Amino acid sequence: MTYEEGIIALPKQFTYRPAILNKDKIKPFKELIILGMGGSRLAADILNIIRPDLEIHIHSDFDLPKLDSQSLYESLIIANSFSGDTAEIISGAKEALKHNYNLAVICSGGELKEISEQNELPHILNPNGDGLPARMMIGHDLLAIAAMIGLSSGLFKACADLAPEGLKAQGSGIAQSIGSKIPLIYTSQRLNELGYIWKVIFNETAKIPAFHNRFPEADHNEVSGFHFNHDEFAAIFIRDDLDDRISQRMDAMAKILESKNISAHHVQMSGQSLLDQVMSSIITAHWAAFEIAGKAGIDPISAPEIKDLKDQLS
User: Fold this and answer.
1) Among 141, 177, 181, 204, which one is most buried in terms of CB atoms within 10 A?
2) Which residue ranges make up each domain of the chain?
3) What are the transmembrane regions (predicted)?
C-alpha cells in the first residue's frame, strides 16, 4: 500500500475488532503502563488526550519505569511494538516476566509474538500494515489497547466516517507554508501529545527536523530564543481555542515570531468530538508531510536513518 492510500484508508482501521489470545490471563489492575517507542506509542498518547482519567503511564525507554514494586504489581503492563522486535520494549517485557508482573502484548509478529506464545501471555496480533509503518497504524493500535483494558470500541466508532480527502487541501497549505523550513509546532498543554505526534510525522515522513512546545510553558522560556531573526523556521499553531488565555498567548507569540521573519500558520481543530478533532489533525499532518516528501523526491514510508542506527547497534 502506498502512503497516500494509507492516509485515505486510515478511517477503515476503526472497523477493526481485535482478538485477545489468552484473555483469561489478564489479572485485575489498578494502574496502566504502556511500553512503546516511536510510532508504537502514539495510540497511548491519543488516549492520554481523550481519556486523561485513565492516567496512562507511557514508558519509552529500556526496562520498566522506576516505580515502587507495589505499583508495578498492581499495574497492567502492555508491551506494544508494531514490529515486535523493538529492543527497548522487549527488555521491559522480559523484566516484567522475571517479576511475574501482569503483562500483556500488542504486536504484529517478531520476538514479542514468540515471547507471548512461549509464556501464554494475553496478546493481540495486529495486522502487519501491508507495508505501512507504525505511525500510520494508529487506528488498529487504539482499538487493540482499548480491547486489552476493557474500553468500549464504541468510543472510536465515529472515526470510521472521517473523510481524509477533505483534509488534503489543509495539509497542502501547511506544507506550502513550511516549504524548506523547520516546523515549530505549538499546542495547548491539553493537546501536548498531539504536537508530539505532528513532530514524529514530520521527522519520519518528510525527513525533516521538527520541534514542539506547548502553552503556556512556551511563554516562559522558548519565546526568549527568538531575540534575533530566524527565517529558517516556520511556526504551526494547533488551536482548539477553549481557553481565551491560551489563545491570547498564541496570538501574542505569533506576532513576535512574525516580527523575527518566522511565518505563523494557524490550524484550527474541527470535529464533533475531541477524538474526531485529534484524528483529523493527525490526518492533516500526514498530508502535509506527504507533500513535503513528494516535493523533495523522497520515499515517505521508509526511515533509512533509523535502519542505519539499528544496524550500527546490532
Assistant:
1) 141
2) 3-160, 164-296
3) none
Distance CA 288, CA 292 (A): 6
CATH architecture of 3-160: 3-Layer(aba) Sandwich (3.40)
**pTM of full prediction above 0.90:** yes
In this prediction, residue 129 carries a pLDDT of 86
CATH superfamily, domain 164-296, is Glucose-6-phosphate isomerase like protein; domain 1 (3.40.50.10490)
Output the nine-digit C-alpha cell for 92.
521491559
Q: How many residues can be counted in the chain?
A: 314
Rounded Cα–Cα distance for residues 297 and 285 (Å): 18
Q: Sign (positive/negative) of CA torsion 44, 102, 111, 17?
A: negative
Q: What is the pLDDT of residues 226-285, one digit of tens each?
A: 999 999 999 999 999 899 999 999 999 999 999 999 999 999 999 999 999 999 999 999
Q: Measure CA 160 to chain center.
A: 18
Residue 233's pLDDT is what? 97
